[in-house]
Design brief:
Strand content: 5-15%
CATH superfamily: SPOUT methyltransferase, trefoil knot domain
Number of helices: 3
Largest sheet: 3 strands, parallel
CATH topology: Alpha/beta knot
């Protein structure tokens, strides 16, 4: 994982790298996203490595789910998070 993470940081420098994990305390809705920020998701079955999460506790975010739901489908999680970023950037509303 270290090599891939290093490559990601080189390819996408400058912005914050938000790590989406069900282990996070902070909700994805509690962040103001800036242009250049990067949303990082792990594999659907394994999530992000504990070593990466341990090294980056301040940038972990979670999407809340019911307690009986193990996790969201990866494509759904990406869609939910991306919509929130676009909503903030473009001023989308809940009309």
């Amino acid at each position: 994982m270290g090599h891939n993470w290093d490559d990601l940081q080189v390819q996408l420098p400058g912005g914050r790298h938000w790590l989406f994990t069900k282990k996070a305390e902070r909700l994805y809705l509690d962040v103001t996203y800036a242009r250049g920020d990067v949303l990082v998701f792990g594999g659907e079955s394994s999530g992000l490595p504990d070593s990466l999460l341990g090294d980056n506790p301040d940038t972990q975010l979670r999407i809340p789910t019911r307690t009986d739901v193990r996790s969201l489908n990866l494509s759904n999680a990406v869609a939910v998070a991306t919509y929130e970023v676009l909503r903030q950037w473009r001023g989308l509303t809940q009309d």
